[in-house]
Amino acid sequence: MDYYEYMVVYDDYRKLRYKVSEDVYDKVVEARRNKAIVEIPVKTLDKVFWVNKIGIEDDLRVFLKLYDDINQSLLKNNGRLVEALNSACIEVARTTYEDTLKIINGEAEIRNKSEKMVVNIYNVLNYMNKTEYKFITKESLMDVWEMIIDGVCENSYLWEKGKYRTGDIHVVDSQGKIVHTGVPVNKLDDVMDEFMDNYNYIDPDKVFALVKSFVLHYIFAYIHAFCDGNGRMARLLNNNYLIQAGWDKFRRLSISSAINRQRTGYYRSIDFSNNSFGDTTFFVKFMLKSISSLMYSIITGGN
C-alpha cells in the first residue's frame, strides 16, 4: 500500500491521527516523507524540513499556469509599495496605498507608526534592488533588519546591537493565540548560519527554487531570530530569493498582498507545519494557493 490518498488529501497531523489507526498513521508519515521534493536539513535543530511532492502537485500546476498567463501590464507599476503596504498590514498596520504613495513621493510627512512601518519596508525593498541582495551574511541581515524596525521596534528589551534576540519570543496568530515559540537563544547563531548557507545557494531548477523559497520563509519564521520584525523579514527574503532565482514577475507581484488577503490561513499553515516531522507541505500549499488566488483575481479583473 502506497498511501497515495493521504497525500492527495493532505490532512494535518492532528486531524489525521483521529482518522486512522496508530499503525496506519506511522506508515502515512513515512510514505509522505519518502515522496519529498525539497529537503532542507538543519543540524542545529536535529531536524529536516521537507515538502511532499504529491501534496503540492495540483497547487503547483495551477500556480505555474497562472504565473505564465499573468501579464506584467496588469500589475501595479509600484509593486514595491504594494508589497511594503501589505507586509506591514499583516502586522496590523493601518494605512492606505494613496497615503503612503504621497509620503514616498515627498508630498506628505510620516504621521504615525503604521506609515513608518510601510516606508521602512519600502526602503529595504529599494535597497535590495539596488544592491542585488544575493549573498547574505549576519552583518548584512542585521543591516536590513535595523532598517525594518527603525522607529517601530517592539520587544526592544530583547535587542543588543549586532546580536540576534537575547530572550524567548512567541509567534501569535490573528486571534492572539501562541502558535510557536522561537528557537532557544543559545542556538540562534548556529541555526542562522545554517539558514544563510541554505539561502545563499539558489538551485538552477526554477521550480525547485520556488518551492525552496517558501520552505525558507517558513524556516525563518520558525527560528524567529529577532525580537521583532521576523514576519516582515521572512517575506522580504522570500520575495528577494524568488527574484534572484529568475521569477521576475515578483518584482511587481506581491507575496504579502496574497497573504494579507488570507491572513488567518497564513497563520494556520504555520501552525500545521509546526509538526514534529519537519513537514512544511501545509505552508507551501498555502503560499501556492494564496498567490494563485491573487493572480487569478488580477487576471480576471477581480482585484
Give a topology summary.
Layout: H1 5-8, H2 13-19, H3 22-34, E1 36-42, E2 47-52, H4 53-69, H5 79-90, H6 97-104, H7 113-131, H8 138-149, E3 170-172, E4 178-181, H9 188-199, H10 206-223, H11 230-244, H12 255-261, H13 263-273, H14 281-299
Antiparallel strand pairs: 1-2, 3-4
Give the end-to-end Cα distance, rounded to a whole number of Å.
44 Å
Major beta sheet summary: 2 strands, antiparallel
pLDDT below 50 for ≥5 consecutive residues: which ranges? none
Structural class: mainly alpha
Large-scale geometry: globular
CATH class term of the domain at 35-75 and 154-299: Mainly Alpha
The share of residues in helices is: 55-70%
H-E string:
HHHEEHHHHHEEHHHHHH
The second-level CATH architecture of the domain at 35-75 and 154-299 is Orthogonal Bundle
Mean pLDDT: 94
CATH topology of the domain at 35-75 and 154-299: Fic-like fold
Tally of contiguous helical segments: 14
CATH homologous group name of the domain at 35-75 and 154-299 = Fido-like domain
Strand content: 5-15%
Strand order of the largest sheet: 1-2
Query: How many β strands by DSSP?
Result: 4
Cα radius of gyration in angstroms: 19 Å
Structure description:
- With 303 residues, the chain is mainly α.
- The protein has a domain at 35-75 and 154-299: Fic-like fold (Orthogonal Bundle).
- Helices cover 57% and strands 7% of the residues.
- It contains 14 helices and four strands.
- It has helices at residues 5-8, 13-19, 22-34, 53-69, 79-90, 97-104, 113-131, 138-149, 188-199, 206-223, 230-244, 255-261, 263-273, 281-299, and strands spanning 36-42, 47-52, 170-172, 178-181.
- Strands 1-2 form a two-stranded antiparallel ribbon. The protein has a two-stranded antiparallel ribbon with strand order 3-4.
- Strand 1 (36-42) and strand 2 (47-52) form a beta hairpin.
- The longest helix has 19 residues, at 113-131.
- The chain is globular.
